[in-house]
Amino acid sequence: MASERPPCQDVGATAVLEARPREVAFSRFHVQVQLGPDQGASQVADAPELVIGSARGNQLVLTDQAVSRHHCVITVTPQGFLLRDLGSTNGTRVSGIRVEAAYLDPGALIGVGQSTLRFDVLPGEIREPLGDEDLSGRVLGQSTAMRRIFAMLPRVAASDSTVLLEGETGTGKGLFAELIHQQSRRASGPFVVIDCGAIPPTLIESELFGHAKGAFTGAQQARAGAFEAARGGTVLLDELGELRLDLQPKLLRALEERTIRRVGSLDPIRLDVRVIAATNRDLRQEVNRGNFRSDLFYRLNVVRIRVPSLRERREDIPLLVAHFYRQFADGAKPPLGLVEAMARHDWPGNVRELRGAVERAVLLGDPVLWREGAATEGEAAQGEARENVFRDDDLSLSFREAKERVISLWERAYVHALIRTNGSNVSRAARAARMDRNYLRELLRRHGVLATDV
């Protein structure tokens, strides 16, 4: 299991321990094939994670035809050794029982395909360094999970290798990508972000590779794509797991050959970019499902960084709450009750959700009102905006009309809360919102909000 270990210096028979751990230690483990086509094959984990499957690139590669390409993974966690099935076709079994995830005891028997594996814990430990800083660029954290990433970032940034960032929505993958770019030799070059999940399927190829004049209807002039625009810098392919299957070979070719061709052109263009990919999906599972090409996954999986969820780094919550509160409250410290309540809360939306909750607490001027759905008189306007974001009768409106209705509801909720928080003083509210006072007056008039001025 994982544990923090402070560094030791031998002074005679005395070990001097520093209070702040400089490294984290992981228990070593061993997996051996007891039955099946690969009987006798074994693998000792040299990292906190060991992946088992039939595809190259796994730590333990099996020839069993009933084993999926990326079948299962064993991860060392503070709670124990976690076995997780990766969406395999035939499933993973522990002591004959099919499981999606389970903690393993020493000597546990794991069934994959037609094979039986034995799991054993070994003496000794794997040690990894921890970063010394709590803040790395715009990324904040003091937990072991974050300091592990901080320790490896300088080495990752110094290379030109492709990086794959995995993690749940809202964990800050985009900030890590920007941080890698800023610490690299390409820092003076552009940082171009392409959201593969937000661009219409008909435009994604043009957005990535550009197009020639007349390549399609509306292409009145030639246009450079993201790879050309990022020349000398870094391109972030955000939400890469959403990329259409038919475009994946073209991306693979671009990464392999370091050349692209604009849509409608045969002229090759040499690339001078670093590629970082981010996804909230486990691409190994997507490979098993046939939604992602295995060869593209291997090409992207040169350096893989898994960004932890907020549930895995709860000790960072007070630090983040204080940081965001200072941002939204002009440097003020958050109320202790707010910090304690937020530290106990589950955050499915991760850091992005936490940031929104802190902003809501500051905006409403009450540390109790940060939760969505808090039923108080002061939140009536906000509740109306939340409950009426979309209604069935919106489908009778045009997209533009429906969008304008939602924006109006949000504006009304915002100015109500803004004026209430600033004691109905327009000047103070305008300064707090960094808004022109005359424009705020117009919003107040439009939404029927009473206020005074000085």
From TrEMBL:
Q: Can you give the residue ranges of the FHA domain? A: 50-99
Which PROSITE patterns does the UniProt record give? FHA_DOMAIN, SIGMA54_INTERACT_1, SIGMA54_INTERACT_4
SUPFAM superfamilies noted in UniProt: Homeodomain-like (SSF46689), P-loop containing nucleoside triphosphate hydrolases (SSF52540), SMAD/FHA domain (SSF49879)
Q: Does the keyword Cell wall biogenesis/degradation apply?
A: no
Instruction: Return any one Pfam family short name.
Output: FHA
Give every Sigma-54 factor interaction domain span: 139-363
Which UniProt keywords are given for this protein, alphabetically ordered?
A: ATP-binding, Nucleotide-binding
Note the InterPro entries from the entry: AAA+_ATPase (IPR003593), AAA_lid_NorR (IPR058031), FHA_dom (IPR000253), Homeodomain-like_sf (IPR009057), P-loop_NTPase (IPR027417), Sigma_54_int (IPR002078), Sigma_54_int_dom_ATP-bd_1 (IPR025662), SMAD_FHA_dom_sf (IPR008984)
Superkingdom assignment? Bacteria
Q: What is this protein called?
A: Sigma 54-interacting transcriptional regulator
Q: Lineage from the top down?
A: Bacteria, Pseudomonadati, Myxococcota, Polyangia, Polyangiales
